[in-house]
């Protein structure tokens, strides 16, 4: 009972945290791992309630203590991580200690072997430091990115994945160094694409499949540096027989076009067009057709806004020429079933920019007028 009053005693000023450590000394140094774990758990609970009261010198001593305990028996590690989570929230944390803590975790903790709640604690520590110690963490360079990749690798729980996806998004959007690990960061996230998750009945956590889809899409579409790895994956999934994979891939492509340029798209345009054309021509799903048309619109808009050098190849004109080549002859066959899909594809591309509209209408309008006069007679 005496131990349960520690948080109140620290808050009232009757005890300092270091005096609590001394009072718990026998359990913290006990040769039995379960006893040590209970002692550290109690100390961590005190820190979680009193972290805002800690002085800088106390934080320094506690960080050193907890880092050393990361080398302890595996039964002790969950309680150690809880203490480090409390310390990661401390305003009094001196410069350099955030980096020290993360290096110790990356080096000493095999995150994949922890329970879900303890893995979540690791993600929380990383998130806290990214929110308050960004410049220090950026000083680690690509080592921080690599350390996080190792932490996330193999994660299965949707509660943890939502947090992990946010961390990856922040790594990219806040311009942390990815160094030579761009492909590794892509692989550790794209392995979940497309999301295949059905929440269990009466799930108390309330995580929906759509939450994971949107969170992962925000990561995959966040940087052009993923393009060379992502675009082949999207083409593969659009061409699959799974409806949800088609929809997710087309919607992700649509999102990517907001951040890509001609350079990222160039090598994949023929395959992207072939996949979109096939889906619009052949699908029985109105949703796939709509998402395919939206993706074509976004691709055309992306090519339209890319700044051209004087000696650069004009990808927009060649892309539109391919669309016209595959669609315009169907307009001359009004009894055929492909006339409307062809018209929709041409409309989606033409609506993307003034240049695209001019290119397509100048090629299609004469043909339509000819057909009108021919059949009007």
UniProtKB/TrEMBL annotation:
Main location as per UniProt: cytoplasm
Organism superkingdom: Eukaryota
List locations, semicolon-separated. Cytoplasm, Cytoskeleton, Spindle; Nucleus
Q: Does the keyword Transport apply?
A: no
Q: Which Pfam families match?
A: MMS19_N
Record's GO cellular component, any one? cytosolic [4Fe-4S] assembly targeting complex
Q: Where is the signal peptide, in residue numbers?
A: none
Domain MMS19 N-terminal positions: 21-282
Query: Which SUPFAM superfamilies does the entry mention?
Result: ARM repeat (SSF48371)
A single GO BP annotation from the record?
DNA repair
Recite the UniProt keywords alphabetically.
Cytoplasm, Cytoskeleton, DNA damage, DNA repair, Nucleus
Which family does the similarity line name? Belongs to the MET18/MMS19 family.
On assembly, the entry states:
Component of the CIA complex.
Q: Which PANTHER family match?
A: DNA REPAIR/TRANSCRIPTION PROTEIN MET18/MMS19, MMS19 NUCLEOTIDE EXCISION REPAIR PROTEIN HOMOLOG
Q: What does this protein do?
A: Key component of the cytosolic iron-sulfur protein assembly (CIA) complex, a multiprotein complex that mediates the incorporation of iron-sulfur cluster into apoproteins specifically involved in DNA metabolism and genomic integrity. In the CIA complex, MMS19 acts as an adapter between early-acting CIA components and a subset of cellular target iron-sulfur proteins.
Q: What is this protein called?
A: MMS19 nucleotide excision repair protein
Native species of this protein?
Neovison vison
Kindly list the organism's lineage.
Answer: Eukaryota, Metazoa, Chordata, Craniata, Vertebrata
Q: Which gene encodes it?
A: MMS19
